[in-house]
Amino acid sequence: MEKGITAIILTKDEELNIAECIESIKNVVSRIVLVDSFSTEQTVDIAKKHGAEVLLHEFENHSKQYRYGEREAHIKTEWTLRIDADERISTEAAREIEEILKKDDSDITGVIIRFTVEFMGRKLKHGGMYPFKKLLLYKTGKGEIEDRAMDEHIVLHEGKAIELKNDSYHHDYKDLTRWIEKHNKYASREVLDYYRNLTGEVHETGKALSGNAKFKRWVKFNIYYKLPMGARAHFYYIYRYYFKRGFLDGKEGKIYCFFQAYWYRYLVDAKIYESEKMR
Q1: Which pTM was predicted?
Q2: CATH for the 2-170 domain, from 1.10.357.10, 3.90.1750.10, 3.90.550.10, 3.50.50.60
Q3: DSSP-assigned letter for residue 208
Q4: Which band of pLDDT confidence, cut at 50, 70 and 90, is reported for residue 206?
Q5: Between the CA of residue 215 and those of 9, 211, 219, 221, what are the distances in Å?
């Protein structure tokens, strides 16, 4: 394997975000591969201008799209980075990554990256949103993405993951209308994942999820979905806004908690109800 990192970015109409994403990683990765779902604006052109290779593929879900990117990119670098167009790796986090790669510790096969989350121009520090952690960097061949319709994670087959100390940034320049459109699609895929979990079609892949992701998933399927439909969205809002102190993030925190609970989570419930009613 060659030294370095190959980054894979999945995109669909990300012209507002893609340039900053690429610029944030170009000094720490050796190759950038964009897997685009036939964007209707300038995403592909912008990505190419900033040095990315581009693959075009019809989107089904993030897991299948990412697997396609891994397969068709024919990755030869020792490390692979999964990153979204609305995420930026900070200079400090990039330095940490470089130091990890220099150590060449064979036991370390994954890196958990910490993100601040920005919503409507404000960084959310409460409501259970900070820090947002994801295992995104892993040794090529030592990890893979889960086969899920929604809430898919990179899991490791062997070795251990370490967490970066410095924050990176989740910053989406799209407005609330695009946020709603995106989460409407997420809700449909969440329902599919819900039924696949009920029927046992979904199996854990690899060695294990990172601790934080594993705990959240356990709570979702063993506590949250056991609560009465509809009421659970209300409990979710109370938990995020009051117990996790989302109210300290001002109006933006209020809107975020409200939409996550009474729009997104309730929409998932409504789609589950619709699916059961239409059987």
Answers
A1: 0.92
A2: 3.90.550.10
A3: B
A4: very low
A5: 26, 6, 6, 10
